[in-house]
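Internal ticket - ligand job 450, phenylalanine:
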Amino acid sequence: MEHKREKFSSSLTVFLATLSSAVGLGNIWMFPYITGKNGGAAFIIIYLLCVTLVGLPVLISEFIIGRTTRKNVYGAISRITDKKGFKSIGIIALLATYFLMFFYTVVVGWVYSYVFKSLTGTFNGITLETANSIFYNTSTNIILPILWQFIALLTGGIILVLGVKGGIEKLTKTLMPVLVILLIICAFRSITLPGALEGIKFLINPDFLKVDISVIISALGLAFFKLSVGTGSMITYSSYYTDDNRLINTASKVAIADTVVSLLAGLAIFPAVFSFGMEPSSGPGLLFNTVPLIFSQMPGGKILCIMFFMLTAMAATMAMISLLEVVIVFFTEELKIERKKAIIINILIISILGSFAALSASSEGSLGNKLIFGMSFFNLCDFLVSNIFLPINGLLIILLIGYFVNKKCVCNQLSNNETLNNKKVIGILIFIIKYIAPVLIIIIFLKSFI
Ligand code: PHE
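stdout (structure tokens):
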């Protein structure tokens, strides 16, 4: 029996759902810090160039694949080409999605536990030591991280049981605006603190001397991760797009809005960090030590802390469901397993394998010292996804659309069957897809290994 496919209902909900996949932990614990460390506005310019010349072309290519075939990532790739080699894209995308979820859901679990902690007053009057020990317990306990990871996955599963319109669309339509409002409130509070200017300077002061090849590599990696390309999330979501959605337009708006959200997150965090004389750090340290500490010291901080972790949890959950949806539709369409069952099976797979990531996320965790290729399982997942799967898949996808898919089909998708007057833009885009983006990915990929 052919499974009846749902669609998003309008261009607005398409935009919000797509943006909700892009916005996630990457905006809050990666982008602001990497920007601050790598030359502020200078890095932002490089990042935007990477987005324009590589990220967007890959994103739009994924949209073309998704909307043309209206299938899960594996089915979509198999349909769009009969070239055997390219079929592996579907498999790499599925692997990338699983490996990304193994470690992403660990951090989503930590964020959930921090929402709970902020609500129950754990952070009242904390000091640097207590902040460190709270995070130490959160990440090294044998049971709690696995439990919170499971709760996060279960939440995602419950949303997805409700389907594309009733689950993904309803949730993202309601929560994306709330998320942005909460973020603006936090940013406003942070930039009005005494001494906040230093933090704003850290974030945007342009320093072109800091830009070298390693900065360009991290900008490209970030562009892939931020735009959720290479995993199958965007192919899957675009398989639900309306026929009249303007793909180039949606991709550009998503990239811009996502960058704005990242900058807002930076404005919510760094001015406060500097105002309290703290060191800007990245990743876990920034989100789980510094943030509770600064909020506990500021007037009205308790409520802001709750707001901040809530908005982080919302962003992380919406990004997570865009990953879960990839494997769920693969199960329903390719393996013919009913949606509810597919959700349960996948939650189990990810929580079981993901628990190894949960126990190895901290070097002091119970599996923290079990190394595979010199890395903990958590770091190995991150390494495989960011350095191997995403760039390779991005490259294959762009080559596929540039050289192996019927040009008419590509143009029809981009011009909505010639109803849009955008021939010039399409021409430029196809030029970038064929000649610029692949060359850049190859150069940067090789450089990252040398
Ligand atoms: N874009 C998400 C973030 O910034 C992460 C993500 C990557 C989500 C790939 C889906 C697919 O956190």
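Auto-summary: The longest helix spans residues 301-334. The chain has a mean pLDDT of 93.
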